[in-house]
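sorry for the late reply, my laptop died twice this morning and i had to redo everyting from scratch. anyway the thing you sent over, i finally got around to it. pasting the sequence first so we're on the same page, its 365 residues, then the predicted structure underneath. double check i copied it right bc i was rushing
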Amino acid sequence: MNNVHCAGAVFLTAAVLVGCGEDRSDAEVERVRAIKPYFVVEPSGGDVRRFSGTIVAANSSALSFAVAGTVQAVEVNQGERVVEGQLLAALDTEPFELDVQAAQSQVATAQAGFDNSRVELDRQRQLYERGWVARAAYDQAIAAFDAADGELNLARSRLGLAERELANAGLLAPFDGVISRRDVEPFVEIQKGQTILQIDSEGALEVNLSVTDSIVGRLSVGAPVTIDAVAVPGCGCTGRVTEIGVAAGAANAVPVTAAILATPGGLLPGMGVEASLVLSDDDGSRGLLVPLVALAPGDDQARGYVFKYDESDGVVRKVAVAVEGDGIVRGNLVSISVGLDAGDIVAAAGVSFLRDGQRVKLLGE
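ok and here's the structure:
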């Protein structure tokens, strides 16, 4: 009997020790759960219209020199990746250096004239205070000093302008990106403001569309967009409208811009695509579809919750949502009318194991 009690005590002690060890391990290392993402873009109602569009970089800039001159070197080629502040091209600096030297000489001459006029003014003031010269001579000394001061300021301004033009003889990348166009070669004369390079931001892409004015009123910022590119099989890109023009152009078309939420490999600026835009119902329905399994049970505060992924912090946020009508709209999808926007990412499974503010990662990352 004593042996049985001893064995039980040993087993209990071991279990306690193991349990303590597990608690300590969990406390020291927080597990980052992987969640299955669902991109909220599909509407629960509304018409879908297709338009042809063109892929463009979200941030694109045509680059030119702020001064005219002769191109001495072009340091980049089309398609090359660059970083902010990198030297892209340079002009022959000799003319600008000579201008700086000439301006420096003018400053030195003007400084000497200013110093002499100041000494003469002091001398004339002392003579006038003693009554040895007329007021007119003193006034002339004041006028000469003011003129010398103006000449010095003008010379300094010319020097600053010459130094600025010398600094502008080098063209730097304004941001990280890719050189999408190169229109210049060394030893060519260029004019001020003449475009020689174009830089596009890398990764962030948009679609430029032209939507007829008769239906643009049914389109809203944030509306979901599906993009198909023939050159990128299986693209299936999703996006949302970010800008809607306020005036119609040719053929009564209004410019519309949609940001692509996740850029697949092979999708490049300049490619032609087909974009499917979702227009609101005439009754104003704006519901968005999410999987039923993405909903967490409600309480006294809300009918239901979803866990929305916060990309900036890498956590999920518990968000109260409102379900439209009777709930189920199609298959296992429900229509959410409040709490979500097109482009949001929600956890599509395992919501019962999540908590507000929990660190997570997207499945597959």
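The chain has four domains: 32-42+286-362, 47-59+202-279, 68-90+171-200, 94-167.
thats about all i looked at so far, will dig more tmrw
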